[in-house]
Write a structure and sequence with these properties.
Layout lengths: L1 H16 L6 E5 L5 E5 L7 E3 L5 E3 L8 H17 L4 E7 L6 H6 L3 E6 L2 E7 L16 E3 L29 E3 L12 H11 L9
Parallel strand pairs: 1-3, 4-5
Antiparallel strand pairs: 1-2, 3-4, 5-7, 6-7, 8-9
Length: about 200
């Protein structure tokens, strides 16, 4: 008992001298639950998205650029180890000095609106499938019937229905440059069909 009290006292004293060594960072998952894990340094507050990526909480960014740079480097190392994909980092105008260290670590500009800039980074060594900024998005669904009158249904590899055991028609977003008129929609329907049959290895965001 006495040994345990001594160990706890030593740990408390160490935490006072080196608070970041024993910092507890909370990461909110896409289902809204909060999980805690001990890390060796301060990490940025963030939550998981539906596509294996991370959305950084812009409201809790460190005001000090040096603290931000340290936290971002630590976070990126942890997220790479966890196999995370796209990272979304919203930097408000008041913290514009954070942009330089973010770009040095692989972030690039996605879009800007009054009051903030959105930056993204793609961590895996695969083609970047983060959607580009757009004023609108057009979706397509394919009803595919074969000669046996069987309907093609799929399960999502990524997205809100991932691992939900839900069967659905193949769907996707129209890529920039693909024809958008209904009677000329064969380009993106053909692509959705190929993806559904597994002819294209990577899933799309």
């Amino acid at each position: 008992m006495l040994g345990r009290v001594i160990r706890e006292s030593l740990r408390a004293a160490a935490a006072v001298r080196h608070p970041n060594r024993f910092a507890t960072t909370r990461c909110r998952s896409s289902n809204g639950h909060s999980t805690a894990a001990q890390v060796t340094d301060t990490m940025l507050e963030a939550k998981e998205d539906h596509y294996g990526g991370v959305i950084v909480d812009s409201e809790s960014l460190p005001h000090s650029t040096s603290d931000f740079e340290t936290a971002l480097a630590t976070s990126l190392g942890e997220w790479r180890g966890q196999g995370k994909r796209g990272i979304w980092l919203k930097i408000p105008t008041s913290l514009a000095a954070h942009i330089a260290p973010a770009t040095s670590m692989g972030f690039d500009f996605h879009h800007a609106d009054p009051g903030h800039v959105m930056m993204t980074a793609w961590l895996p060594d695969t083609p970047n499938t983060l959607p580009p900024n757009a004023s609108h998005q057009v979706g397509v669904g394919a009803f595919i019937l074969n000669e046996k009158r069987e309907v093609l249904v799929v399960q999502e590899k990524n997205g809100p229905l991932k691992e939900k055991q839900v069967w659905k028609m193949p769907t996707g977003l129209v890529h920039a440059g693909e024809r958008q008129k209904v009677h000329k929609s064969s380009a993106h329907i053909a692509r959705v069909h190929k993806q559904a049959k597994g002819e294209k290895a990577q899933g799309s965001y």
